[in-house]
Every structure is written in C-alpha cells, then in structure tokens.
C-alpha cells in the first residue's frame, strides 16, 4: 500500500529501509523523503516504524 503519495513510497519500502538499519523518522526521511512534502504520511510512517522496531526487539529478545 502506498503510504507517501507525494514520493511514491510503499509500506514495503519503509519496512525494507527499517530492516536495512533505519531507526528514526529522520533516517526514513533522508532515505525515502517521506514526510518532506505535504506531511500527511508521517503518522502512518511513524506507526510502521514503531511496529517494526518492536518486532525487531522481540526477535532479539527471543534469540538472547
């Protein structure tokens, strides 16, 4: 699903970028330009970021 219409960024691309090391909205903004034009995508992007970081942390806990 498209999250950022202005720059054509999908939820899958955001997740890929997080899995590649992005951990903040600033990282996602610099890498994908999300939230840099109209800003309507920032809430959805933040939600995806938080969900992915929690999922990564949970996997790390299970491994440790």
TrEMBL record:
Q: What is this protein called?
A: Bacterioferritin-associated ferredoxin
Q: Which keywords label this protein?
A: 2Fe-2S, Electron transport, Iron, Iron-sulfur, Metal-binding, Transport
Q: Has UniProt tagged this entry with the keyword Kinase?
A: no
* InterPro entries hit by this protein: BFD-associated_ferredoxin, BFD-like_2Fe2S-bd_dom, BFD-like_2Fe2S-bd_dom_sf
The UniProt family comment states: Belongs to the Bfd family.
Segments forming domain BFD-like [2Fe-2S]-binding = 2-51
Q: Which organism is it from?
A: Pseudoalteromonas fenneropenaei
Looking at the UniProt entry, the stretches that span the membrane are none
**Superkingdom to which the source organism belongs:** Bacteria
């Amino acid at each position: 699903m498209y999250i950022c219409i202005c720059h054509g960024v999908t939820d899958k691309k955001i997740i890929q970028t997080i899995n590649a090391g992005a951990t903040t909205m600033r990282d996602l903004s610099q890498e994908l330009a999300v939230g840099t034009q109209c800003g309507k995508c920032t809430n959805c992007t933040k939600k995806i970021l938080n969900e992915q970081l929690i999922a990564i942390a949970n996997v790390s806990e299970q491994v440790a």
